[in-house]
Amino acid sequence: MSTAPLLVTHPLYYTTSTKERQLRGTHMGRLVPGLKVWQVGKFRGLTSLTSLIRSDIMPGLLGTTYWGYATKYALVLIDAVAPLLPSVGNDWVNTPGFLDTGLFRLHHTGPANRTFNWADASESSSDEFIADYMLLSQKTDTLRNVYAYQARRQMTPIVEASCQSAGCALMLLAFTDAGSHTDVANQPTTAYFSMGTMEFANRTIVGSMRTSWDDNATWLAFRGGDGEANHNDLDAGSFVFDMQGYHWAIDFGAGNYGLPGYFDKGTKPNQRYSWYRKSTRGHNTWCFNGSDSDVGNSDQDMNALSFISSQSDRQATIDLTSAYAKYGVKKLERTFHLNGTGVDARVIISDVIQTSGKLPMEWTMNTRANVTLSSDGLTATLVSGNISIKGQLTASSGIVFTTKTVNPAPPNEKINGVTRLMVCLSAAQSEDTTVLVQFQSA
After folding, report:
1. Cβ-contact 9, 39 below 8 angstroms
2. Measured in whole angstroms, how far is the alpha carbon of residue 424 from the centre of its chain?
3. Distance CA 356, CA 362 (A)
4. Using CA atoms, how far apart are residues 325 and 36, in angstroms rounded to an integer?
5. Pairing mode, if any, of strands 246-249 and 190-194?
6. Using one digit for the tens of pLDDT, what is the confidence trace for 243-264?
């Protein structure tokens, strides 16, 4: 098991009506704290046809579900084209970063078998796209065992329930019994994914940390955010985490595509970010002055300040200031910590905030667990079945936990059984402050 942070910059795409689709592939490297992303290659399609096709290969910008669509179509296309145009098929496979793209899904899946489903993505890790792992395993020697084992492991629930999906058929066609848990366990426990396309180049958009690759490990995943890109939300600084085999902090993922204005980027009524699942309010981050953060790639950019990773201390700090600057936020740095190992692991979310004036602000974490608060409001106990964890708040005097039931008004989709664990600061409490929330086994 490697403790060095892994940086993966894989092919992603971004398109607008005025820009030609293009693809840049970048190599996989290791990130040393303080150094910039190492981008070592870029690629444009061989013909107008391949350029159009290749622009859709790896849309990690859009989350795990659209990663699945694009990867599946690309792999099937490669197998169809290779016999006719061997040089083209071979070139596609060997595009720097292409065969590493399965690491995106791997690190986005937690030990509770839930994905970090930001944007319009599904939370389930056992879906038709698991077959993508098996198809990828046929094309790489380096990661063959990792992909093949992960495919078999996560496909089991689907096969046991009903094997009627296209994913099952693809699994059978590409099946191999290569690999074991040891191959996955040897993967780095900390990974960050950087974009390599167009104006998004060299931005670290998502990261994850875990104590190990065991089923009872603690896992923390987080993201910067870019509300400008299709399918994305106003979720700068949001996170999810697993502990003791349960998915405590959740993302709502995809909403109802049929809602009015679902793909019309904006915060006005009947625009995308007015819907609860897509808004800042609906994510595990800060909401200032009761409003959503800015829309746009410059305003929801995630700037990595530092990464630290060792066997017992994993840490990443991101700068979210620009996402909330219009509300008078002069500084917002969010640090994600995953400290300790085994049952002693701790997830810590620490925020340093400076504002130009007094404004109300809300810290949120959405959870399906039952939540009870201590009499002083500084401790939250989260319970699911016979599993429990505690959240401890450290902040200025008078700042406490509170809870709300998630119940967005129609025509929002109904959300059942979810509680917002919150830290609410009044205007008088804001200005310059630090808020730290720590979760660990009860």
Report:
1. yes
2. 25
3. 17
4. 25
5. unpaired
6. 999 999 999 999 999 999 999 8
> Which residue is it, tokens 């060997």?
94
Report yes or no: 364 and 285 within 8 Å, Cβ to Cβ: yes
Note the pLDDT of residue 304: 53
pLDDT at position 67? 80
SS3 for 212?
Answer: coil
Cα diameter, the chain:
71
**Rounded to whole angstroms, how far apart are CA atoms 51 and 414?**
41
* Cα–Cα distance measured from residue 3 to residue 135, given in angstroms and rounded to the nearest whole number: 28
Q: Are 125 and 109 in contact (CB under 8 A)?
A: yes
Which has the closest alpha carbon to 253: 290, 208, 283?
Answer: 283
Whether the ω angle into residue 111 lies within 30 degrees of 0, i.e. cis, is: no
Residue 51: helix, strand or coil by DSSP?
helix
Looking up tokens 């065969």 gives: 99
Answer whether 138's CB lies under 8 Å from 75's CB.
no
Question: Alpha-carbon distance 122 to 158, whole Å?
Answer: 15
Q: Among 71, 123, 427, 77, which residue's Cα sits nearest to residue 277?
A: 123
Count Cβ atoms within 10 A of the Cβ of residue 134 and give its class: 0-12 exposed, 13-18 middle, 19 or more buried.
buried
Which token pair is 296?
């746009």
Read off the pLDDT band of 11 (50, 70, 90).
very low
Pairwise CA distance, residues 12 & 95, whole Å: 12
* Closest by CA position to 352, among listed 327, 318, 328: 318
Query: Scanning the structure block, which residue is given the tokens 């405590």?
Result: 248
Distance CA 246, CA 177 (A): 28
Q: Is 159 exposed, middle or buried (0-12, 13-18, 19+ CB in 10 A)?
A: middle
Residues 78 and 72: their CA atoms lie apart, in Å, by 10
> Rounded distance, CA 437 to CA 424, Å?
13
